[in-house]
Design brief:
Number of strands of chain A: 11
Strand order of the largest sheet of chain A: 2-1-3-4-11-10-9-6-7
Oligomer: heterodimer
Helix content of chain B: 25-40%
Distance between the termini of chain A: 10 Å
Shape of chain B: globular
Largest sheet of chain B: 7 strands, mixed
Strand order of the largest sheet of chain B: 8-10-7-11-9-12-13
Number of strands of chain B: 33
Order of helices and strands of chain A: EHEEHEHEEEEHEEEH
Radius of gyration of chain B: 27 Å
Largest sheet of chain A: 9 strands, mixed
Structural class of chain B: alpha+beta
Helix content of chain A: 10-25%
Shape of chain A: globular
Distance between the termini of chain B: 57 Å
Largest interface: A-B, 33 and 36 residues
Strand content of chain B: 15-25%
Number of helices of chain B: 26
Structural class of chain A: alpha/beta
Radius of gyration of chain A: 15 Å
């Protein structure tokens, strides 16, 4: 059982994710350089936070053309589990694996703080560790996390149970207070908050543990 | 033969900030007249920014050695030994002038520059802090500067993936138009040997890595060494533009390269760019460097030798590489999308030789540029300036009488709320919320949680990255600029003492200092006196507290020419950055109350202290002179700030650290701006728990009891189950050495209310929610209307 963590130039949460999965939870974790194509032996892939390729153009836009992500798209087709955190969520929307887009925070400032979230596991098997409607606390740290999608699509996402995480005190102006989404199959999850920053009691809360621990099923 | 196109000497000297005497010295050293490019090289290398030509004689008195000091002043950063095979590099640097004219990029590149100083040594940056000063936020221009500076720091630090874990921000009209932006970085060494900057190995290739060279940041070091005027806005091209994405790759590639053992020497290109890096590397190594500008990766075409040599384009480094290893080394940098090129070689002859288009564009003895640089002689006035002496004559009995109801028309409740609404005292959440405080997953105490930031010492790379780590490093930046303005020696001592006290409050052992001397022009009697007295204060305090200075930065000419022609100098601001070792992270103590029922103790000079037994004179270690209370409530910036009792500081801090490691202390918070009442309010707000406190009844003025500053004082919470052991520790300390003054003031309460009374009569009674409202809204409220 192994987790892969994608590393772009400009990724900066790649080592933090490995500390959470391998250091705190004991799950073997391997880094995947952006030019690689080998996903063999992996049970799940995490696209971590950071500023991939400098986030020039739009956040995540250049990253979505990386060789490794072509393999990640194929991995998703085969039913593999993919988690995108922060910049990783932006990449997933740029790749079209999740709908909508993430734009500059409503008040324009970067925001870093713990924030309460409501969890709705829906179809996502690896969120079953959380009760439906449970409140958890995860840190956010982003300047471009305002989720945008047209009202019809938002309704569709709500109806199909794809809105997995919702802000309780919307910090960035996201429509529907959306903090995280799954695809209809529940195999792809993208969220702006950082579950890997909530796995180690020495540095904060541990509400992210169940999410990362159950990534392997 | 060196090419010498004609130029106007007078104009060139003015532009380079050189005097006629400097020019004569240059001619003497070269044995001929310099050409324009060479003159530019001397101009930057002989600026205050690069060679401390005004401050060097004063910096020599700093204590710089100690058992833990591995690298002191002179290299890119200081390095201290943390034991257990871990070494910490750290340094502070200013970017004041660039931030004044272009706050976003000025501040961002300040962060980039200090990070390069750290990883050039072979250390991975693990934390950033910053010390900022602005004019009052009621003025839109100042609010705009703060908006830009904070966004710039956030942009660079957040993107490069180094957490910003602490800092301080203060406001005063003297900083209007001349903000201060000091950035401090800490790094954990990842290489076996500390990477040095002295070139060696004749024939070794000189390799350029990082970003391309352009015309941005031309002459930034000279620009930074002159005062600001309205016309300074025209100097915006002297401000560099930063790219944190390139820097992130540069960190990774440099650390890989250093570990390969292929790098003989390294120097980042900061102030004075290629000129500084070539001449420093050659001078330190006692060798020469030949540099071919045609090989330097350029951002634009048609750049002259002068422009190449003086460009301060960011994210660039220069290496001396073991011969034959250059291709392997350059491949590492290209993998990260960076430039890499062999641009020269090490020469036996001690000279910096610059080639362009097949000709020698400049040739200067390396020592002539970098060694025995000129010193500006200043004479120190024999007694304090008259206006300072006038301030020192102020005394507390000039204040209106204080009663239990309040002072003047204000109640004590109103006074406390007004102090919490002072942006210098108020919550800085608006600022630090914009910084990523957590990336790298080692932040144990983020901003606002305790008196110092604490970062776990878990390496990011190698086998130990996945191992549990129980030790940490604590860091702070401090400067009571109001006190320095009134008494530079006491103020500077207090900066060191407060930094050490803040570290002690989290349980960390203070180790070493990096200082950033932000001062007005040293050319006036008062200006030089301020600088000299502050250096003396830092020296005395660092010696007494065993915290040697490992380096730092000097920023002079921080003054603004007002439209009417007068100069407005800043408050002299010697910012002290200090690092400490946390032996056991499980013992780290925060400032918030922990449990109702805990006893509240005050360590340090007692509230009602007099100057001696039986004396009625006031103890001058504690005073309202120069206090926040005096300025905010009475509109007075006057008086002589408190005497700093270094022996008491040392004893109280050592006692507190010992009590923390014995598990006796639930929380600790130092008394700073606003004195006892503000410190109590902060511990209440951080915890949501109330406090009920009784101040002694006697002859002492009530405002002195509540708001006086100084006295090495620390507020401590002691849980009921530790009460006995705490009392024993106090008794033992008194028996074994100097007595630790301590008084019990009251108790932590479950009710969310702060109550301060005297002889059963209530002086202050405020719900925490009301304290919060003033404290949390002070800055956002002003920013919402100011910008």
């Amino acid at each position: 059982m192994t987790i892969g963590v994608v590393v772009f130039p400009g990724s900066n949460c790649d080592r933090d994710v490995r500390w959470a999965t391998e250091g705190c939870l004991g799950v073997p974790t391997r880094f995947l350089w952006h030019e690689e194509r080998d996903l063999s032996g992996l049970d799940a892939v995490i696209i971590p936070g950071g500023f991939s390729y400098g986030d020039y153009l739009r956040c995540g836009a250049i990253a979505s053309f990386a060789p490794i992500l072509q393999e990640v798209a194929a991995f998703v087709e085969r039913g593999g589990r993919v988690l995108g955190i922060c910049n990783g969520f932006q990449v997933l929307t740029e790749m079209g694996l999740l709908p909508g887009a993430l734009t500059r925070n409503e008040k324009l400032h970067f925001v870093c703080e713990d924030t309460p979230l409501q969890v709705s596991p829906g179809h996502c098997q690896w969120l079953k560790g959380y009760g439906d409607g449970e409140t958890i606390h995860l840190p956010i740290a982003h300047g471009e996390g305002r989720y945008q999608v047209d009202p019809g699509q938002l309704q569709q996402l709500e109806d199909s149970g794809c809105v997995a995480f919702r802000y309780q005190a919307n910090p960035n102006g996201s429509v529907g207070a959306v903090a995280g989404l799954t695809n209809p199959a529940g195999t792809v999850l993208g969220l702006m908050p950082h579950p890997e920053r909530a796995c180690d009691p020495a540095t904060g809360g541990i509400d992210g543990r169940r999410l990362l621990a159950s990534l392997l099923g | 033969m060196v090419a010498t196109p004609p130029f106007s000497l007078a104009e060139a000297l003015r532009k380079e900030g050189l005097s006629r005497a400097d020019y004569d010295e240059i001619v003497r050293r070269l044995g001929r007249e310099p050409n324009r490019a060479e003159l530019g090289m001397f101009g930057v290398m002989w600026s205050e920014h690069c060679c401390y030509r005004n401050s060097r004689p004063l910096l020599g008195q700093f204590p710089t050695t100690g058992p833990r000091i591995l690298v002191g002043p002179g290299e890119n950063a200081g390095v201290v030994d943390l034991g257990e095979g871990q070494r910490l590099a750290f340094k502070i640097e200013s970017h004041n002038h660039p931030s004044a004219v272009e706050p976003f990029q000025g501040a961002a590149t300040g962060v980039g520059g200090i990070l390069r100083d750290i990883f050039t040594m072979g250390a991975r940056p693990i934390a950033l802090l910053n010390a900022l000063r602005f004019g009052p936020l009621e003025e839109g221009r100042n609010a705009g500067l703060m908006e830009g500076v904070v966004a710039g720091i956030a942009h660079y630090g957040n993107c490069v993936g180094v957490p910003t874990v602490g800092g301080e921000v203060a406001f005063d009209p003297s900083y209007s138009g001349n903000p201060l932006v000091n950035a401090m970085a800490l790094g954990l060494m990842e290489t076996e040997d500390i990477v040095r900057s002295g070139a060696s190995g004749v024939g070794n290739p000189v390799v350029y890595v990082g970003s391309t060279t352009g015309r941005d940041g031309m002459g930034g070091a000279s620009f930074a060494s002159a005062e600001l005027t309205e016309a300074s806005l025209d100097d915006r091209p002297a401000v560099q533009v930063g790219d944190p994405f390139l820097e992130k790759g540069l960190i990774e590639a440099c650390l890989e390269a250093f570990q390969s053992g292929d790098v003989v020497a390294a120097q980042d290109m900061g102030a004075a760019g290629l000129t500084c890096s070539c001449s420093e590397m050659a001078a330190k190594g006692g060798v020469g460097v030949e540099l071919d500008l045609d090989l330097v990766p350029a951002r634009e075409q048609g750049m002259t030798a002068y422009e190449f040599l003086l460009s301060e384009s960011q994210e660039r480094m220069l290496f001396v590489v073991a011969k034959g290893r250059e291709e392997a080394l350059m491949a590492r940098f290209r993998r990260w999308g960076l430039q890499a090129a062999v641009v020269g070689r090490v020469l036996a002859e001690n000279v910096v030789r610059v080639l362009q288009h097949g000709e020698v564009a400049a040739e200067v003895p390396a020592n002539a540029l970098a060694n025995d640089t000129p010193i500006n002689q200043h004479s120190l006035i024999s007694e304090p300036p008259a206006e300072i002496q006038a301030h020192w004559r102020w005394s507390e009995d000039q204040l209106p009488p204080a009663s239990r109801e309040g002072i003047g028309s204000r109640s004590w409740n109103q006074v406390l709320l007004a102090l919490l609404d002072d942006p210098t005292i108020a919550s800085k959440r608006w600022v630090y919320r914009q910084y990523d405080q957590q990336v790298q997953a080692n932040t144990v105490v983020p901003p606002g949680g305790a008196d110092a930031a604490v970062v776990r010492l878990r390496p990011q790379q190698g086998s130990e990255a996945m191992a549990a780590a129980t030790r940490g490093v604590a860091a702070v930046v401090d400067c009571p600029n109001r006190w320095v303005a009134l008494d530079p020696e006491r103020g500077a001592m207090a900066a060191v003492a407060e930094a050490a006290r803040n570290l002690s409050c989290v349980g960390a052992e203070p180790l070493a200092v990096t200082d950033n001397l932000n001062f007005p022009s040293p050319d006036s009697d008062t200006g030089y006196w301020q600088l000299a007295m502050a250096c003396r204060g830092i020296s005395e305090a660092c010696s007494a507290l065993d915290t040697p200075v490992t380096g730092g930065n000097v920023s002079l000419y921080n003054e603004t020419r007002l439209p009417d022609g007068r100069m407005q100098p800043i408050h002299p601001t010697p910012v002290v950055g200090m690092v400490g070792l946390v032996h056991d992270l499980a013992q780290v103590t925060g400032l918030a109350w922990k449990q109702p029922g805990a006893a509240i103790w005050l360590l340090g000079v007692p509230l009602e202290a007099c100057s001696g037994p039986g004396s009625m004179a006031l103890d001058d270690r504690l005073t309202l002179a120069g206090s926040s209370y005096l300025e905010c409530i009475h509109g007075l910036l006057t008086g002589r700030p408190p005497q700093v009792d270094l022996a008491l500081e040392k004893a109280v801090q050592a006692f507190l650290r010992q009590a923390i490691s014995a598990g006796l202390v639930a929380c600790a918070h130092d008394l700073a701006d606003g004195g006892l009442a503000v410190a109590l309010a902060e511990a209440c707000m951080a915890s949501g728990l109330g406090a009920s406190v009784e101040v002694p009844a006697g002859a002492t003025r009530l405002d002195r009891l509540l708001f006086a500053e100084g006295g090495a004082r620390i507020l401590v919470g002691v849980a009921p189950e530790q009460a006995e052991a705490w009392q024993q520790a106090l008794d033992q300390a008194g028996g074994a050495g100097p007595a630790i003054p301590a008084q019990r003031l009251g108790q932590v309460q479950a009710s969310a209310e702060l109550v301060i009374s005297q002889a059963d009569q209530v002086l202050v009674q405020l719900p925490i929610s009301e304290l919060q409202k003033s404290y949390e809204q002070a800055i956002p409220r002003r920013m919402a209307t100011g910008v």
